[in-house]
């Protein structure tokens, strides 16, 4: 089969399209002939070596969709040819967290890599039936952003009538948050860096859109828009350049969700600002395995709609990463395999 492999961490040029041997499914595993792979910011961290160097060449990519093309011994419930979506969270399946549906709190939890390829072998619990009505490209765009956003909105007890602020609203997690907050009946204040996205964000569900120059303090705008109260929840995927503002714009007793640090991860804060104002800080990283099948149903019904920015052939994964790093995207980048 063909795959994109990384031999050593670096810039997009380390993504090499090459021929590799076909993986064979072992006991309890299935092999999927992938037709599409979603590109996530995590893939850039992997490529750059943020999770460590590689002992052997690594195939990046965590989201994907395709058809089962081989079953390992004991892999029941699926048939060759069945269309499936990859569920990217891997956990032990036995600990108290796994058994209570909080797989992403399992001590052995990890996100799998390997979807930038024509084939992938995964445990049978890491595939979910793909509903009809979705294309492979659409199905591959959903996993990480929607599972993550649904998980943190549930943990933050986000409910109808609340106001939520979303930084980086045009990215994958940003748009997933907006769509899921919209169906919860929330008021959504979306922050973006470009005028070009304002109308589309409103179509997706943003109540108001703030175009940010990357420097201005937005707290006064948020206070103005919320009758001086501040927002109930703020979703921060940028980190260093936005997090202190997030603490300021949330109401007393509100929740600040940290779901990434695409603009750097170092902050310095005065703890009084946190405890005296009774804030909740919530770290978000993927979600329960139960979420993806439920979310896919909402896509199949048309309650949620995939937002695809651009597709690239698998061979052009480098260009896909360059486009992602430009941050001039609206929605997901997907590799067509
Ligand atoms: Zn576990």
Helix and strand arrangement:
Blueprint: E1 2-6, E2 15-19, E3 29-39, H1 41-48, E4 63-71, E5 83-86, E6 89-90, H2 96-99, E7 110-111, E8 119-123, E9 127-129, H3 136-140, H4 143-155, E10 163-166, H5 172-183, E11 187-192, H6 198-204, E12 208-211, H7 219-225, E13 231-236, H8 243-249, E14 250-258, H9 272-275, E15 280-283, H10 291-301, E16 308-313, H11 317-326, E17 332-336
Parallel strand pairs: 10-11, 10-13, 11-12, 13-14, 14-15, 16-17
Antiparallel strand pairs: 1-2, 3-4, 3-8, 3-17, 4-5, 5-9, 6-7
Helix pairs in contact: 4-5, 7-8
Zinc ion binds at residues 91-92, 94-95, 97-98, 106, 108.
Domain Enoyl reductase (ER): 10-335
GO molecular function: oxidoreductase activity
InterPro entries: ADH-like_C, ADH-like_N, ER, GroES-like_sf, NAD(P)-bd_dom_sf, Zinc-ADH_QOR/CCCR
Features:
single chain; 337 residues; Quinone Oxidoreductase, Chain A, domain 1; 2 domains; 7-stranded mixed β-sheet; 6-stranded parallel β-sheet; binds zinc ion
Q: What share of residues is helical?
A: 25-40%
If you consult CATH, what is the topology of the largest domain? Quinone Oxidoreductase, Chain A, domain 1
Q: Which CATH architecture of the largest domain is right?
A: Alpha-Beta Complex
Poorly predicted runs are: none
Tell me the number of helical segments per DSSP (H or I, 4 or more residues long).
Answer: 11
Radius of gyration: 20 Å
* Average pLDDT level: 95
Distance between the termini: 11 Å
What ligands can be seen in this structure?
zinc ion
Sheet/helix structural class: alpha/beta
Tally the beta strands.
Answer: 17
Percent of sequence in beta strands: 25-35%
The total tally of domains equals 2
CATH class of the largest domain: Alpha Beta
CATH superfamily of the largest domain: Medium-chain alcohol dehydrogenases, catalytic domain
Q: Quick one: overall form? A: globular
Series of secondary-structure elements, N-terminal to C-terminal: EEEHEEEHEEEHHEHEHEHEHEHEHEHE
Question: Which sheet architecture does the biggest sheet show?
Answer: 7 strands, mixed
């Amino acid at each position: 089969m063909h795959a994109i492999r990384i031999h050593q961490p670096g810039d997009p040029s380390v993504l090499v399209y090459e021929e590799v041997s076909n993986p064979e499914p072992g006991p309890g595993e299935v092999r999927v002939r992938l037709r599409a792979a979603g590109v996530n910011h995590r893939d850039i961290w992997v490529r750059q070596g943020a999770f460590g160097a590689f002992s052997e060449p690594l195939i990046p990519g965590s989201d994907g969709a395709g058809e089962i093309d081989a079953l390992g011994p004991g892999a029941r419930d699926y048939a060759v040819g069945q269309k499936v979506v990859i569920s990217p969270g891997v956990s032990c399946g036995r600990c108290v967290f796994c058994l209570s549906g909080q797989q992403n709190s399992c001590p052995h939890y990890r996100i799998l890599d390997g979807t930038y390829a024509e084939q992938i072998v995964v445990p049978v619990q890491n595939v979910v039936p793909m509903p009809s009505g979705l294309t492979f490209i659409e199905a591959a765009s959903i996993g990480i952003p929607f599972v993550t956003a649904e998980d943190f909105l549930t943990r933050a007890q986000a409910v109808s009538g609340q106001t939520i602020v979303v930084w980086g609203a045009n990215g994958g997690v940003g748009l997933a948050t907006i769509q899921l907050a919209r169906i919860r009946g929330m008021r959504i204040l979306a922050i973006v860096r470009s005028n070009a996205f304002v109308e589309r964000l409103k179509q997706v569900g943003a109540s108001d859109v703030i175009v940010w120059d990357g420097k201005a303090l937005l707290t006064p705008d948020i206070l103005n828009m919320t009758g001086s109260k501040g927002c109930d929840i703020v979703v921060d995927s940028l980190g260093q350049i936005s997090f202190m503002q997030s603490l300021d714009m949330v109401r007393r007793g509100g929740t600040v969700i940290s779901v990434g640090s695409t603009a750097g991860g170092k902050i310095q804060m005065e703890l009084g600002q946190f405890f005296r104002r009774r804030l909740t800080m919530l770290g978000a990283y993927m979600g329960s395995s139960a979420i993806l099948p439920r979310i896919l149903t909402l896509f199949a019904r048309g309650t949620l709609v995939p937002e695809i920015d651009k597709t690239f052939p698998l061979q052009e994964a480098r260009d896909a990463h360059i486009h992602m790093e430009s941050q001039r995207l609206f929605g997901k980048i997907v590799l067509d395999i």
